[in-house]
Amino acid sequence: MNEKLAVTIWNYKGGVGKSTVSLILSQIAAQNGLKVLATDLDEQKNLAETLRLSRSIFPNIEVRTELSEKFANENFNFYVIDTHPSKDESVIKALKFADIILVPVFGDYNSLINLRSVFDYVRNAGVGAGQVALVKNCIVKSKVTAEVEATLDEQGYSIAGRLPRSNILVKNIASGDKWDKYMRTIQRVKFLNLYEKILSAYREMLKGNFHNLWK
């Protein structure tokens, strides 16, 4: 990929897997030969610390903890910006820098409470509605999850991907291994589909199509 794609991961709700999604996307892009700049704006620095554990495996991922507009002029293909759960100038800067914004949510009722304000905040930052999509994280089959998914669909939220719960993924991250080490293909494909869908949406944007990017 010769273009420069920037993805910001944000949700005003904490603990929904922003850093995990950021790490997975960073590593998948690196596995596909892209030069990746991962920026961790969260005070806890979970993304920065976990990526440093796998530095020897992914030398084409550079990690920073501040966002600069000068990044766009550097020699990177894929930018991942992990944010913190708040509404401040650093978040606005990250949203404006991005081509695509991903909003991770869990399959529970609490995930529905603040979504409207999240999407309103992104739009008020000057980002087009078509550039924003949900990532349903740690999805398991249950009645509650099905009801939450139905509600999200009824409200017309765009969905970039559905990621399964995976204990192997957690172990790999904690061990500094590749995100998909020992992972079964049936699980791995869900994460790869998210990455491919992001690329597909970005290609449509480059053509001037900002509608129905996530269909």
Question: Would you give an account of this structure?
Answer:
With 215 residues, the protein is an alpha/beta fold. The protein contains eight helices and seven strands. It has helices spanning 18-31, 46-53, 89-97, 110-113, 115-124, 143-154, 167-175, 185-206; strands at 5-9, 36-40, 61-64, 78-82, 100-105, 132-139, 159-164. A seven-stranded parallel sheet has the order 3-2-4-1-5-6-7, with helices on both faces. Helix 2 (46-53) links the parallel strand 2 (36-40) and strand 3. The protein is globular. The model has no long low-confidence stretch (mean pLDDT 91).
Q: Keywords, please?
A:
215 residues; alpha/beta; seven-stranded parallel beta sheet; 8 helices
Task: Map the helices and strands.
Elements: E1 5-9, H1 18-31, E2 36-40, H2 46-53, E3 61-64, E4 78-82, H3 89-97, E5 100-105, H4 110-113, H5 115-124, E6 132-139, H6 143-154, E7 159-164, H7 167-175, H8 185-206
Parallel strand pairs: 1-4, 1-5, 2-3, 2-4, 5-6, 6-7
Helix pairs in contact: 1-2
Question: In a few lines, what is going on in this structure?
Answer:
With 215 residues, this protein is an alpha/beta fold. The chain is built from 8 helices and 7 strands. The chain has a 7-stranded parallel β-sheet with strand order 3-2-4-1-5-6-7, sandwiched between helices.
| Contiguous runs where pLDDT drops below 50 for at least 5 residues | none
Strand content: 15-25%
Q: Return the structural class.
A: alpha/beta
**H/E topology pattern:** EHEHEEHEHHEHEHH
Helical content class: 40-55%
Number of helices: 8
Q: What is the overall silhouette?
A: globular
Arrangement of strands in the largest sheet: 3-2-4-1-5-6-7
Roughly how many Å apart are the termini? 22 Å
Largest sheet descriptor = 7 strands, parallel
Radius of gyration: 16 Å
Mean pLDDT: 91
How many extended strands? 7
